[in-house]
Design a protein that fits this description.
Blueprint (H helix, E strand, L loop, with lengths): L7 E6 L1 H4 E2 L2 E2 L4 H9 L2 E6 L15 H9 L7 E5 L9 H18 L4 E5 L9 H17 L3 E2 L2 H7 L17 H17 L8
Parallel strand pairs: 1-4, 1-5, 5-6, 6-7
Antiparallel strand pairs: 2-3
Helix pairs in contact: 2-7, 4-5
């Protein structure tokens, strides 16, 4: 018998997903999760982007999906991760953009699983982070999509992701931070029964 195909998983995100500073994408949390769970991984997105904020590259998560992913064969799972770059955007616009993006994914690939991950902070999150988190969480609830909340780690432990998790810029994860993020995400995915890319 030929070997079974590894699940194909696509992740749409910002610099936390595609790599930033000394941490390249192949060492980031998404790649670590994929290696641990035996996925084929395709990442899309760019630093500074969000659901509404196009960043310096002029591309939102929606555009990243359309230009980088939508023409590919259907994956088993799509993970949309981010939102922190939408800090100057109203909650309703973020929620609507998230709903539109997931709607586009579903129309293109009706049998593909989808997971939404809220904005990630590896240091203490500012109050406005929770406004973004709620907008994404509400969109996930409307869409009946699993929602993973990285800010819950901050709330639970109060110390963020621990010593050594954040780069000197105070924003992006170190290699250790990405390792801790990947362990958290694997545990969350397994809790939702999504280990093999089939929620």
């Amino acid at each position: 018998m030929p070997p079974s195909r590894a699940p194909l998983v696509m992740v749409i995100g910002d610099s936390f997903t595609v790599g930033s500073g000394p941490v390249r994408g192949w060492n980031g949390y998404a790649a670590r999760v994929a290696r641990e769970l035996g996925w084929q991984l395709v990442t899309a997105g760019a630093a500074g982007t969000g659901y509404v904020n196009p960043g310096r590259v002029g591309r939102t998560f929606q555009r990243s999906f359309e230009e980088e992913l939508s023409w590919r064969p259907a994956p088993d799972l799509v993970i949309v991760s981010g939102g922190r770059n939408d800090r100057r955007i109203g909650a309703a616009r973020i929620e609507n953009a998230a709903v539109r993006l997931v709607g586009s994914i579903r129309r293109r690939w009706p049998h593909t699983g989808i997971v939404m991950v809220g904005p990630i902070w590896v240091a203490k999150a500012p109050p406005w982070a929770y406004r973004i988190r709620e907008a994404v969480a509400i969109a996930a609830e409307r869409l009946e999509v699993p929602f993973l909340d990285p800010l819950d780690v901050l709330d639970t432990h109060g110390r963020g992701w621990g010593r050594g998790a954040v780069l000197p810029d105070g924003v992006h994860p170190t290699l250790l931070g990405h390792l801790r993020l990947s362990r958290w995400m694997i545990a969350e995915l397994r809790e939702h029964g999504i280990e093999a890319g089939s929620p």
